Amino acid sequence: MTSSVLMQAIISGILVGGVYALIGVGLTIIFGVMRVINFAHGDLMMVGMYLTYFLFTQLGIDPFVSVIITIPTMFIFGGIIQKLFINRIIGSLPQNQILLTIGLGLIMSNSAMLAFTSDYKILTTSYSSSSFNIMGISISQPLALSFLITAVITLLLYWFFMKTDTGQAIRATAQDREAAQLMGINVKRMSIIAFGLGASLAGTAGALISPTYYIFPQVGSAFTLKAFVITVLGGMGSIVGATLGGIIIGVVESVGAVTISSDWKDVLVFSIFLLVLLIKPAGLMGKSST
Amino acid sequence: MLKIDKLNFSYGDLKVLWEIDLEVNQGEIVTVVGANGAGKSTTLKNISRLVKPNSGSMTFNGVDLTRLESHQVVEQGVVQVPEGRKIFPEMTVMENLRMGSYIPSARKEREKNMALVFTLFPRLKEREKQLGGTMSGGEQQMLAIGRGLMANPKLLLLDEPSLGLSPLFVKNIFDIIIEINRQGVTILLVEQNVYQSLRIANRAYVLETGRVVLTGTGTDLLNNDHIKKAFLGM
Q1: Could you tell me if residue B187 is inside a domain?
Q2: Fewer CB atoms inside 10 A, N or C side of chain A?
Q3: Secondary-structure percent of chain B, ordered helix, strand, coil, rounded to 5
Q4: Are residues B95 and B8 in the same domain?
Q5: Where are the beta strands (DSSP E) in chain A?
Q6: Do A179 and B151 touch (CB under 8 A)?
């Protein structure tokens, strides 16, 4: 194998990793603010995929344009889920939280099955398989575009959390829910915004990979697991960690697929995952709980 | 200003507060003293609506507090500086203070209040970029009080501000409380440091196992035989 092949694999790994990072960041925001692990996370992504598919096939809107619709729609959808369901189980027993989010995920995937059947759909755009060359490395056009959008979203998110009052209030709620209440922060509203953000990030990730991935109702479960690995790898609740984790998993998968075989890429991913946790149990950016 | 009538509260089956009557008038420093577990902090938690009472009424300037959520109590001007400071550890001093002025009415006066806090605690100005979690206990206490002042409180609830501080700093904190009161903020102070808090208080309540057993002016209680024996070791 030549070094250019390896280089190629690393580049496409980073590009895919950007989308993984979005999924992981969404999960980590929800966990950070609510201390609830969202097992419906992959299913939210699936909803984003079908939304994109619907907008493309019915209205002819390009997937990379329709994210403008997908982002607010998924935000509202997530906010409603939080208000109706998740707000009731904050601070309750973990098993109840797990059952609730798994149940919500099942409802989503089965509704998708009813609406769209369980057939695999492919969203083919004119550029789905086109690519361009930079210094002899071929880069997939849809992947590069999705990475660009991911980067913009990540920067906006960073600005939101660091510079705006609402963003800071969400961070404050994550760090000490009770103290946040004593500052006059409406923590229930912050939770709604946080889940809305998480859902819209997952949905956006779904939208961005829809031109290069099969769309089917159960696609979410694999991604829930992946989101979980990314989040734990980066350190639960850490946004920087989840971004890093997403890129690492993307690169490991991609390099694993070309150096060993694509059947073994998940083995490699989980080996790296276990190795990191052995050395740093709280995750790359995590703080060991005291 | 603040009026609590026959407040009863229990954590599950464990009754913690029995028929608490408590009143704070505009401009006063009122202190609630008592041993560990007497129900002092629980009383403040009820006022801030972090917990819900079984029965009883609580009003602030005529507004029924029992109908409000925690964040709405802050909007009324009742601000608590909680026990153990509860600084946001991953936020800088500056960000912590900004969070103190989160409510819309306080946001408008953010600059003014921040200048006030920095005059009161010059140390915070020096550390404005430091993360809250990395500061010493005394500095965190300054930050917690400063953060509370950022909300433009009418009534400041202070829960054990002297806990875990060096003796030198304890004296300092009580001087600062007097100074804050002088600037027009009414104070309800919960303390285990009975001597210091009675010394600065206009009036005081003594809590024992969830009941108010004594009330009076600070000076009266300092000379009370029961207080001397039970709390001051005299």
Answers
A1: no
A2: C
A3: 40, 30, 30
A4: no
A5: 131-134, 137-140
A6: no
**Nearest residue in B to A169, CA atom:** B99
Asked if residue B161 and residue B66 are part of one domain, the reply reads yes
Same domain, B142 and B173: no
Q: For residues A73 and A88, what is the distance between their CA atoms, to the nearest angstrom?
A: 23
Q: Which residue of A has its CA nearest to B81?
A: A182
A36 at the B interface (CB within 8 A)?
no
Q: Does B65 share its domain with B103? A: no
Residue B22 and residue B126 in one domain: no
CATH architecture for segment(s) A3-279: Orthogonal Bundle (1.10)
Output DSSP code: residue A264: G
Contacts of A114 (CB under 8 A, 6+ apart): none
- Look up residue B154 and give its two tokens: 């009418």
What residue numbers bound the domain in which B60 lies? Answer: 1-77+154-181+196-234
User: What mean pLDDT is predicted for residues A135-142?
Assistant: 86
Structure tokens at A53: 């598919």
Place of tokens 């083995």: A267
Q: How far is A224 from chain B (nearest CA, A)?
A: 28
Residue A159: burial class (beta carbons within 10 Å; 0-12, 13-18, 19+): exposed
pLDDT recorded at residue A288: 58
Task: List, for residues A2-58, the tens digit of each pLDDT value.
Answer: 788 889 999 999 999 999 999 999 999 999 999 999 999 999 999 999 999 999 999
CA of B134, closest CA in chain A: separation in Å? 14
Rounded Cα distance between A114 and A171, Å, is 38
For residue A254 the two structure tokens come to 């991609």
Number of domains in chain B: 2
Select from B90, B79, B38 the least CA-distant residue to A239.
B90
Q: Are strands B155-159 and B186-191 parallel, antiparallel or unpaired?
A: parallel
Q: Which of A165, A172, A184 sits opposite B75 (nearest CB)?
A: A184
CB proximity A166 to B under 8 Å: no
Which amino acid, residue A146? S
Q: Do A179 and B74 touch (CB under 8 A)?
A: no
What is the domain partition of chain A in residue ranges? 3-279
Question: Domain of B228: which CATH number?
Answer: 3.40.50.300
Q: Would you state the structure tokens that stand for residue A33, as one six-digit string?
A: 């603010």
Within a domain: B62: yes
Residue among A172, A181, A184 whose CB faces B151 most closely: A184
